[in-house]
Write a structure and sequence with these properties.
Elements: H1 4-55, H2 57-73, H3 75-96
Length: about 100
């Protein structure tokens, strides 16, 4: 049989091991959450955008109308024309200056 002093010593050692184990688990949980920080941030941004669009139905209608128009004309063709116009404006402004 163990004496009461031995039992107290065993309890103290067990307590130290449990404290060390809990610390290791806290570190592991913190590392797991650090890995989720970016995806959670992206979801949060998406929800904020959805809330914004839910509060601005006219903006949603304008976006849908714009996408519909570009789809008919071809987004690539419109973007190409816009880029050509931008280059032309830059060239003309260089000549004028």
């Amino acid at each position: 049989m163990m004496g009461s002093q031995d039992q107290l010593l065993e309890i103290a050692h067990r307590k130290e091991r449990l404290i060390a184990r809990a610390e290791a688990q806290r570190v592991a949980v913190a590392a797991s959450f650090r890995g989720l920080q970016r995806p959670i941030g992206m979801v949060d941004s998406g929800l904020a955008a959805a809330r914004f669009l839910g509060g601005h139905p006219l903006l949603v209608a304008a976006i849908v109308a714009t996408v519909t128009i570009f789809r008919r004309r071809g987004l690539v063709a419109v973007a190409g024309r816009a880029f050509s116009a931008w280059r032309l404006v830059r060239a003309v402004s260089t000549w004028v200056a």
